[in-house]
Amino acid sequence: MIFTNISILDENMQLQENMYVGIKNEKIDYIGKEMPFTDYGESYPGKGKLLMSGFYNTHAHSPMTLLRGYGENLALQAWLNERIFPFEAKLDGNAVYWGTMLAMAESLRFGIVSTTDMYYFCEDMVKAIEQAGTKDNVGRGVTNFTDSDLYSLESFSEMKALYGNYHNTAGGRIKIDMSLHAEYTSNPKTVQQMAAYTKAIGANMHVHVSETKLEHEECKARHNGMTPIQYFNDLGLLDSKTTAAHCVWVEPEDMDIMKEKGVTVASNPISNLKLASGVCNVPELLKRGINVSIGTDSVSSNNSLDFIEEMKIFAISSKEKYQDPTAVTPTETLYAATRAGALSQGREDCGKLAVGYKADVIVLDIMKPNFVPVHDMVNNIVYSACGGDVVLTMVDGKVLYKDGVYTTIDLEKTMFETNKATKNIISQL
């Protein structure tokens, strides 16, 4: 495909107008002011449109689309124990497949090209993701409330098989991460064994960290004053490339460790605000040079996958919390939503609009009232745009969504089957 006369947000987050961008063999092959001589096939007229990198959602539980709006206005523990856990206990592979497919449809609609997921029934997730054509770092979450050896756990066996069967499949679109759920859902032996195994196979680690003050303080009480980050570091978990979700209550010493270990923080602003967990100290993390990306968390604690909405809250929540209107700039926000997320997933050739990078791109319709006037396009994208402005989403050079039409997903069937699976579970509760 060749995008013609289109505005672009280049690899330096700079606006360039009336550009030509050629896509070839899954990658961005040409960016320039002149129409290239190479035949790129279909032409996309870009007048009134903006081409930029797609978004990387670095913390999610995609099948939980099934729980959208289920269990509202409850405190976290009541929300989990009275609504979420009983519902999840009734899940099966079919429900997870359709819930994942719905999440992929919603992701594409809002410009998300890749997701970092933690859940179970992961083979069914992989099947849906592969068919949808999206990218995903899938992790089978591991918990252990007993003294059992990690290697005897069914969840570990599933995780190990998942990695062996699906890591770097579908042309590299699907990657398998190791996923320890959290400090409070495991024990030191489990953490240590997970750390050793993950490091031995060279995988990524995905873990919940310091999401709530209670979680953070109870960890310190259990482990001689060590915070979750200090505890995980002591047991070797952070020796592997790690994405730490939330990090709302991390302390200065934790940040020193995260910087040293190259940990990515996946901030989930809407979920953390909605569950009253707090606001991640993104300004300080960025000041220390820590890679910060953006996640939606689950649709049950967020309610949508509108990533542009997530970016806006990511930027403005820190301004209010830390009483600094200069905290977290629009450019830092866009970087977190794109390149930082791709790097956290181990996708080195993704996350920016540059020749040689994967063609994971989106098109925004900028001929709308909310985009006029344009004093600074980056400001408009972060503060003025909405998810509905996305009109095309491309992954590995393939158009998966365009002007309301999906090329890989039967949306009507997906919504029908998701509703059916949800009603079946509710009937059992």
From TrEMBL:
Pfam families listed in its UniProt record: Amidohydro_1 (PF01979)
Domain of life: Bacteria
Name of this chain's protein: Amidohydrolase
Single annotated GO MF: hydrolase activity, acting on carbon-nitrogen (but not peptide) bonds
Boundaries of every Amidohydrolase-related domain copy: 51-399
Taxonomic path: Bacteria, Bacillati, Bacillota, Clostridia, Peptostreptococcales
InterPro entries reported for this sequence: Amidohydro-rel, Metal-dep_hydrolase_composite, Metal_Hydrolase, MTA/SAH_deaminase
SUPFAM superfamilies tied to this protein: Composite domain of metallo-dependent hydrolases, Metallo-dependent hydrolases
Species whose genome carries this gene: Aminipila luticellarii
Entry keyword set: Hydrolase
Matches recorded under PANTHER family: AMIDOHYDROLASE-RELATED DOMAIN-CONTAINING PROTEIN, AMINOHYDROLASE SSNA-RELATED
